[in-house]
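Database export, one record per block. Field names are fixed; values are copied verbatim from the stored entry.
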Amino acid sequence: MDTYDLVVVGSGAGLNLLNYGLEMGLNCALVEDTKLGATCLTRGCIPSKVLVHPADLIREAEHAKKVGLTFKVEEINWDFIAKRMWSQIDESREIEKGLSEVPNLKLYKGIGEFIGEYEMQVKSVKSGEVIGHFKAEKFVLTSGARSFIPPIEGLEEAGYITNENFFGEKFPNKPWESLIIIGGGVIAAEFAHIFSSFGTEVTIVEMLPRLVMTEEPEISQFIETNFKKSMKVFVNHKAIRVKLKKKIKVITIQNVKTGEEIDLHAEEVLVATGRKSNADLLRVEKTGVETDQRGWIKTNEYLETTKPKIWCFGDANGLYQFRHKANYESEICANNMFGPPEEKRTVDYSAVPWAIFTYPQIGHVGMTQEDAINKGHEIFVALKNYSSVAKGFAMGYTENDVDDGFVKLVIDKSYKILGAHVVGPHAAVLVQPFVYLMNSGYTCDMEEFPGRGGLMKLGRACPEAGSFMPIYKSMVIHPSLNEVAGWAIGNMKPINIKMEHHHHHHDE
C-alpha cells in the first residue's frame, strides 16, 4: 500500500495548499473525481461570467434608450460565445498536464472514500472499480459541493439541467426557446439573466417568499421587479410534478399558501435549489470526521476537523461558498499545518464579500439590517440611490425608476461598518472598498511590510478601525458612481438606537 505525507481531496482551492506541500518536498497525492480546477473553473464562476458579459451588453443596449440611443443586437453568435467559454474550462487540461510532471505528486482521478483511520481508497467514476489504495499522515478535504436535487415527482424521468451538466454534456447548441428555473438563489438569478437576455422565455419558480434570500429585502424586491420586465417570476410556489409531453416539459407548481396548482410548459428545466455536501461520498464517518445536521464537514477556527491531522476548507465546510473565501482559507490552513504552532491563525468571516452577476448586479459584504439587529447591535441605516448623483443621472437613472439602483449601509452606533449592500451597475466594484474598510481594524498594529530596503515596520494607531470615518474624511471623484457609496453616510437614519443622556466631561 502506498503512503503519503499529504493527501488533498479536491482540485479547486485545494491546489493552493497542495503547492505548499510540493514546495516543501513532501510526498503528496491529489484526488479529484471531475475536471481539475473544480467548480469555479469548470462549472461555476469563470465560465458563467463568459456568458454573463454578453448578456450584460444586451441589457445595457436596451437601457441606452434612456439616454437617447437605440442599439439593435443584430446577431448573437452562440457558437463564438460557447467557444470562448470552453477555452476557459479546457484550462483544466493544462493543469492536469502540469501536475502529471511533478515528481513528488500522484494524481488519482476518481472518488476518494475513507476505509479506515487515515486510509483511503479511490474508485473509478465510470466503473466503480478501486483504482487506488493508500494511507497518509495528513489529509486536507476540499471536496466541494454538488447540486441539491429536491424530490419532485417525475423529475428524473423528464430530465433536467444543473450547473454541473450544463457546463458539460447538456450544454445547448443554441439558447433554449423556453426555460423554467426551479430556485431563486445566486445560480438561478445568473442563469435567468443570461438566458432571458439571449431571447429565451424564462420562468423562475421559488418556494420562498422572495428571490435571493441572502440579500436585503429591498434588494430582493428590486430584483424581482426588474426581472418581471423580461421573465415570469413565481415566488411562494414549489414545483411538485414534472411530465414530458412531446419533448416539452410540463411542470406543475403549487402555491405554498393557497395550495392552488398551475401548469407551466418549457423546452428545458434548470434545477438551482441549493448545494449539497460531498462529505457523504468521502465516507468521512469512517475516520472520525464529524459533519453537521446538513452534512457539511465541521471545522473549528483553525480549519481543523474533529479528527487530528485532517483539515477542511472551501465549499466542503458549508460556510460562504465562494472561491475567494476558499482561497483565503487555503492560506490560513497552510499556515496552521506547516507553520510554528504558536503562530496559528484563526479564520474571520465578518467581512466576506460576494457579488451576484445578474441584472441588475448585486454586491454584498457583512451583515444585513436584520442580521445586525438579531446580533444585538444598535444601528444606523444609510440608503442612497444612483439617480441622486450626477453620474447616475448621466447614465440614465432618474428618481422612482424601477431600475434606479441603490447603496444600503448598515452601521453600528459606534460608526463601525457592519454591512454594505449595492444593487445596480458595477455593484461588485462599489462594494469592495467597504470590505477594505471593515478589515482595516486588522492591519493597524505593528506589522512588517516588504519595502525597497527589505522588511520595514509600520505602526499606526487606529481609533477609526472599521468605521466609515476614512470615507467621511476623503475626497470622492466627481462625477462618478463612487459618490453613491461615499455619500450614502449623509443619509444615516437611526433604526433601533436608544437615545442616552450624557453628562459631558472635558478631559484635562
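Remark 1: The domain at 2-146+276-343 is CATH 3.50.50.60 (FAD/NAD(P)-binding domain).
Remark 2: The chain has three domains: 2-146+276-343, 155-273, 360-494.
End of record.
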